[in-house]
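so my prof wants the structure for this chain in the tokens format not the other one, which i didnt know existed until like an hour ago. anyway here's the sequence
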Amino acid sequence: MQIVRIGLDLAKYVFEVHGVDAYGRIVVRKSLRRGAVATFFANLPPCLVGMQASNGAHYWARVLSELGHQVRLISPQFVTPYVKSNKNDRNDAEAICEAVGRPTMRFVPPKSSEQLAIQAVHRIGSRLVANRVKLANQIRGLLSEHGIVTARNIPRLRRALADIAGTNDDELNGLVRVLVREVQVELIELDRRIVSYDRRIGELYRNSELCQRLGRIEGIGPVTATALVAAVGDRTCFKNGRQFAAWLGLVPRQRSSGGRTQLFGISKRGDRYLRTLLIHGARAALCKAGGKQDARSRWLNNLRRRRHHNVAAVALANKNARIVWALLAGDKFYEPERSVQAA
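here's what i got, hopefully its the right format
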């Protein structure tokens, strides 16, 4: 009996394999050490392999695709309903095998090594920014205990730290002054590293014609453009722009029953980082549209008069996501007038 579909549960060292034939009968069920996975699949005829989109999934997707297999990555939340009885690696592999065979299943776009490298730059850079915010909040809290209050503004905090470190005010404890000098050095180092990652993103943007095409959209700059290109692998996974916007969590949540439709706020599914970038970019575009008279700006101004500023920002982010899908899927260039007419 030939294996036509396999569920592969990924792990650090021991992988679980669950394979079935064309009739859904179990053909293989075994555990593999990490070093034996590639050899096992190299000796199999091409088949459909399903994996959860977890750590290492994109690497194994590339390895198995090169061996001739058709690989599909599934979000873990879509695998959970197919787990029978208790949760363990073997049952997870069986659930993945069952889920990947469903005709209406949604899959995660696989990423190339270049996309993963760009994504790594974004993730490390965003972590450094978060660390700087945590450090700044900690410094302000510690200084407030000694009667020194600084604004929630990092440039002002830098100036305040420089003033404290450069004076010898007897009212401030000597040990605290030493600690202030140390955190000042730490803050300077974080600033330097963040600037270096911003330069890398700018270089990636300048070297990518696709990123520059996305950057022409109002509300999308180098950071958002490179993040989008890194996140969207196989563009054929999305049938249309609305499906792409839904993947980003920019469409309303729905709870409908008995012919009654209820819509709530956006679903906030998918990649939070991408969604945040698109919404922040949309807010910036809304602020700049105030005095303009082009068709897109008039549409934005009318929308802002009718709805709350945040609702208008999310609506623009949703529209920008659909435009991005059109540019990526059709290899097109951005045309503002046509984007407004399609609204």
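also thought this was worth mentioning. The chain is about 55% helix and 10% strand.
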